[in-house]
Amino acid sequence: PASLLSKQDGNGKVSRVIRIGTRKSQLARIQTDSVADKLKELYPDCLLSNASVGNHCLIVSLQIGEKSLFTKELENALERNEVDLVVHSLKDLPTTLPPGFTIGAVLKRENPFDAVVLHPKNAGKTLDTLPENSVIGTSSLRRAAQLKKRFPHLDFKDIRGNLNTRLKKLDEKDDFAAIILAAAGLKRMGWESRISQILSPDDCMYAVGQGALAVEVRARDTDILEMVSVLHDSDTVLRCIAERAFLRHLEGGCSVPVAVYTEVKDSQLYLTGAVYSLDGSDSLKETMQTGITDLNKIQEEVDERVQRVGVTASKISGPAQDGAERLGIDLANLLLSKGAKEILTVARQLNDAR
Ligand code: DPM
């Protein structure tokens, strides 16, 4: 409730400043602003201020394997009480957060799929019709593994930097015929018109948490947790808990070729998960499902502050969240029993040796 967050100022006016930390990239700012706007709408009496931290680690942030580095600065600011909440792309957050932090909100997921952005000279083409040996830019092992297998006539090369940098590299040079990016990020940047093709799950399944925004807070800050909890989208929360539990149980981390596809349909949560060798020639893919009981009915009765794969969602059915987590673990165990560990170990070793 708003009263928890309010305090009297000298003039008797009720207000509290909520400080949101952001990085300086355009995408980070857009994402932070969208969450700030939602909070302003829901809590018109709160003042929100944007604090900017860590403006220099931007390019590092997109390098595979550097993940904890760039969320770290924002967490430091949270820890030092300089900001109250920070907004991330959920897919950039590790499945185990450092102690003292939690994800207090997972917002309704945007289109989670990957998209093709063509060099202007290739307008009208698709991955299928691009000429033999066309170079596709991505540094995602997950994308490269799936697409190499599916489109063997194409070549894949690393491309790094934030979204603005990548678009520039694509358009202003002749190095890449196309690049692959998450549709969600392109949409948030206002670059939807550059999307020439959305990849279906048969072509390329997405990364765990892709397309969803997460609000990270201090785990002990119950006022802020309560405040941001209204931003949770229950279907997204359940899907992402299942996906994150799957990745965590595989001991996947962010830089291994692991992909997922989830759906909520007729009170069922479906999770498809896969692991790939670096060139996609070796892979394992399975689907499992679990029933999710009437969310709204249970909602009022549940009041527990438990984290599941880093997420605190006390207003969403506990049993449904447990079911989602179980689903992720069960699917991981199924793939592990078929040899997923070996595939991932080899992929990791080969990638480290590159
Ligand atoms: C992670 C990956 C990438 C980002 C790996 C993956 C892509 C790296 C690359 C974990 N984080 O997806 O397999 O393309 O070289 C990132 C983007 C977004 C969040 C950009 C993108 C925006 C979309 C979202 C980088 N993190 O994937 O195009 O909010 O989900």
Count the E strands: 17
CATH fold descriptor of the largest domain: Double Stranded RNA Binding Domain
In order across it, which strands form the biggest sheet? 4-3-5-12-6
Alpha-beta content class: alpha/beta
Mean pLDDT: 87
Straight-line N-to-C gap: 52 Å
Give the oligomeric state. Answer: single chain
N-to-C series of helices and strands:
HEEEHEHHEEEEHEHEHEEHHEEEHEEHH
| Count of discrete domains | 2
The assigned CATH architecture of the largest domain is 2-Layer Sandwich
What's the overall geometry? Answer: globular
Helix coverage percent of residues? 25-40%
Overall radius of gyration: 21 Å
How many H/I helical runs?
A: 12
| Percent of sequence in beta strands | 15-25%
Spans where pLDDT lies below 50 across 5 or more residues? 1-9, 54-69
Largest sheet: 5 strands, mixed
Bound molecules: ligand DPM
Question: What's the CATH H-level homologous superfamily of the largest domain?
Answer: Porphobilinogen deaminase, C-terminal domain
* CATH top level assignment of the largest domain: Alpha Beta
